[in-house]
Amino acid sequence: MVAQLQYINHKIQVKPENEVLTFTFDQLLLQRGGRLGPVTLAYETWGELNATGDNAILITHALTGSSHAHDVEDPENPKVAWWNPLIGPGKYFDTSRFFVICSNIIGGCSGSTGPSSINPLTGRPYGMRFPVITIRDMVRAQRKLIEHLGVRRLAMVVGGSIGGQQALEWAVHYPHLVDKVIVMAASAAVSAQAIAFNEVARQSIMADPAWLCGDYLPGQGPTTGLSIARMLAMITYQSEESMEMRFARNSVQREVVTAPTFSPELGGRFDVENYLYYQGDRLAQRFDANSYLYVSRAMDLYDVSEDYLSLDEALRRIRSQILFVGIRSDFLFPASQVRWLAEKIQAVGGNAQYAELDSPHGHDAFLKEWSKIVDTLQEF
Amino acid sequence: MVAQLQYINHKIQVKPENEVLTFTFDQLLLQRGGRLGPVTLAYETWGELNATGDNAILITHALTGSSHAHDVEDPENPKVAWWNPLIGPGKYFDTSRFFVICSNIIGGCSGSTGPSSINPLTGRPYGMRFPVITIRDMVRAQRKLIEHLGVRRLAMVVGGSIGGQQALEWAVHYPHLVDKVIVMAASAAVSAQAIAFNEVARQSIMADPAWLCGDYLPGQGPTTGLSIARMLAMITYQSEESMEMRFARNSVQREVVTAPTFSPELGGRFDVENYLYYQGDRLAQRFDANSYLYVSRAMDLYDVSEDYLSLDEALRRIRSQILFVGIRSDFLFPASQVRWLAEKIQAVGGNAQYAELDSPHGHDAFLKEWSKIVDTLQEF
């Protein structure tokens, strides 16, 4: 009886504390030219890898995310880990059955090699001497990590937004290594409008005199510019509908934060402005501005057909069962474009499905609509 | 025969040159408190006022517009005057029959009193000591102008965007002075999303160190911040659909202008980025940054029901025949909200109509889709 309990305990063993691990390898040849090295990936895992090395799920994060998709000390709280409610024993990403991995992307600033890392050639942070990186580069680094962890093949790769681009790239670039793929709120390539929004955000960062062409000191970065960039991004992550529900034209009740520029207010502050100031401020405290430039650019540059003769040729490589999830109110990655890609894969003979999240919350629904997400993924 | 020709010539007389006139009055009491004075309005007129003073059409301009809606020297070119193709002898706004007036709004920077005007109390530009102004203030200043011009009643007030807000305010505030009103791409009040976009633009301007809390010298303003603000605004004036048609993911062929921040490019420049840099640069050359702050704020603050007990009470005041024109692809002033307002007015007994411009070009369709505009307005 005791032995059996121990055995059960072993099977659902979780680490008692949150622990960010790192894995470093020599170098990565980059899709757009040049090489990056040494490369460190910060990662976290939950659950245990089975003896056959085929029960791993790789979760890929979005623009400003990190490896901390799940928090074992506060496992129900979505504020402390970005996909917390979906991960854990008995959850959709069931850590009692699966070995769940999430690593910070290269270019990021949460432990993986990015523009704020030390450039071994100079002994100082890379800044804008960091090379242009792509979604494929992120995926190829993840490939080295899972090999290091002893994973023989992935049971699933799953992510939303830029994480969805990574999941899609896994399906195309490593077709024989992945059983199932879930691409949420991402498509074959972003639209001109999405590139445009990203570029306004980047210009806001680079217009901040504290940016210093990327050579700011740690903790002295362009927080004003990064705040403004985040304010804009937060609009595109929501929808006209959800902002109307949350804020409408209400005046602010409590000013929680100053505007990024400490600027005078003309005729009072709207609730929606207060919310955006707060979101801008929060990101500026925790995120590296140069990482924002590089990772948002990777999002713009991603085109699943790059380096193939045609989109069809790229999509024909896919061997995984692949689920696309569009969000009804998403205007950054419109649901129609997500569906279009799923149908394209079906048309070239792939095993693709499409499901739509009926949410008013825009792009960010993949970080909010927990029960709807589970309902949507459940049948996959 | 000669006499008759002279008579005809007289009827279709147009000024041979473009001439911006000014009218100055003592002061304007402002809706949000305080007073502004003296107040100058820069204006242009085309055609002649009839003896009964009732053939005038007032055209109201949008955020960065001016009195130059029509150019008599280059009357077909939409690039030299913002509503050129709609105005002139025999055009929809027929200057052989109507006395067409367009004045620069207060708060603007094309000859009317605005933040770049000299503050009589200090002898220096107002800057941020300019008072908060509203759409109603703009309209009340226009009321003084038309009185000065001898107009007894307006045959029509017409405008799009902020110009549409002014036209609507005319209908509500001066119901007995206007026969017909056309409100294009404007609604009862902007959404939280539109306020949010405007605020990001304003923060970009105020984050520019050259802004100097609004006290920059003429010609030394925050052109980088204003360029970025304009880049963002240009996205909201178009649509995902039209940007995809125009730019898609094409790389730039010819770099016509540097980015506002002269920043390094990460992986090349997209055509859409080049376009936005160009638009930003153009506006920064011609427009005053503080005017941008004040006028965009007037747009945010506008709510047709302000100072009335209810929206219904405000709308019941309308006596004019009023046409609302929504644009199918407009996401700044969604067509559904324009239609909603027209139906609201009908519901309280007003003579309102709604027509929809079936254009992919977003909000800016009211400055582009000449033949569709004429078709839509023709029956009114």
From TrEMBL, chains A, B:
Its EC number is 2.3.1.31. Its main location: cytoplasm. Keywords: Acyltransferase, Amino-acid biosynthesis, Cytoplasm, Methionine biosynthesis, Transferase. The active site is at S161 (nucleophile), D330, H363. One of its GO terms (cellular component) is cytoplasm. Residues 55-367 form the AB hydrolase-1 domain. The keyword Transmembrane helix does not apply. Substrate binds at R230, D364. It catalyses: L-homoserine + acetyl-CoA = O-acetyl-L-homoserine + CoA. Signal peptide: none annotated. Gene3D superfamilies: 1.10.1740.110, alpha/beta hydrolase. It holds the Pfam family Abhydrolase_1. Transfers an acetyl group from acetyl-CoA to L-homoserine, forming acetyl-L-homoserine. Belongs to the AB hydrolase superfamily. MetX family. Homodimer. This is Homoserine O-acetyltransferase. It comes from Dictyobacter arantiisoli. The gene is metX.
